[in-house]
Amino acid sequence: MTVPFLQRLNRHLADTAQIAWCERRCEGCGATLDPSFLDDYCRESCRPTEKPVVPAFVTRTPAARIHSFRLTSAARALPGTYFEDVDPLAVIEAAGWRCELCGGEIPKHVDRYDPQAASVDHHLPLALGGHHVRSNMRAAHRRCNISKNATHPDDLICREQPSPPAETDGFRLPAEGGGDTVGSGRGPTDRSDLAQRSPGTTEATDPNR
């Protein structure tokens, strides 16, 4: 590309950007904005109002919390699941507003759909035969609860605590070809082993003979 071409390209891009800036419209009412106006709204009434933060469980009555928690749990439960009337806020307060999955603190005044919001996890998931009883419940962040999903507790423990590698105490396993390397720490073709052998042993390996 030549210099004159790049100059024409830059002028074209600058003209296009200026035209787009002059044709801006208010995102609220659609009126044309003054080019000297930097905001995206022509007046405050066009600016959208922020949605109020609704914390999980805190703003509802105990009866409403129990009823809503029971309904949402029943949608995932298997036939024959036993249900108790449990206030989810009581479960969270009993845990000291701390997630019992990751151990982190649960903030009280974030929106109920925030990843850090409070929720109640069933230790043995309802979809795997768990019951909706207080002994099967624990406090959790919303994101931790969603991440756990319907994982069995035993599978969760195995995933969080991987088994350590097998200890060999300095010994190597035998090679697949049959070479015995146990206790030597070196392979069957290690030259340091060959050098330490007797002359009678190395004569058979001399290619010049």
From TrEMBL:
<keyword id="KW-0255">Endonuclease</keyword>
<dbReference type="Pfam" id="PF01844">
    <property type="entry name" value="HNH"/>
</dbReference>
<keyword id="KW-0378">Hydrolase</keyword>
<feature type="compositionally biased region" description="Gly residues">
    <location>
        <begin position="176"/>
        <end position="186"/>
    </location>
</feature>
<protein>
    <submittedName>
        <fullName>HNH endonuclease</fullName>
    </submittedName>
</protein>
<dbReference type="InterPro" id="IPR002711">
    <property type="entry name" value="HNH"/>
</dbReference>
<keyword id="KW-0540">Nuclease</keyword>
<feature type="region of interest" description="Disordered">
    <location>
        <begin position="153"/>
        <end position="209"/>
    </location>
</feature>
<dbReference type="GO" id="GO:0004519">
    <property type="term" value="F:endonuclease activity"/>
</dbReference>
<feature type="compositionally biased region" description="Polar residues">
    <location>
        <begin position="198"/>
        <end position="209"/>
    </location>
</feature>
<feature type="domain" description="HNH nuclease">
    <location>
        <begin position="87"/>
        <end position="146"/>
    </location>
</feature>
<dbReference type="InterPro" id="IPR003615">
    <property type="entry name" value="HNH_nuc"/>
</dbReference>
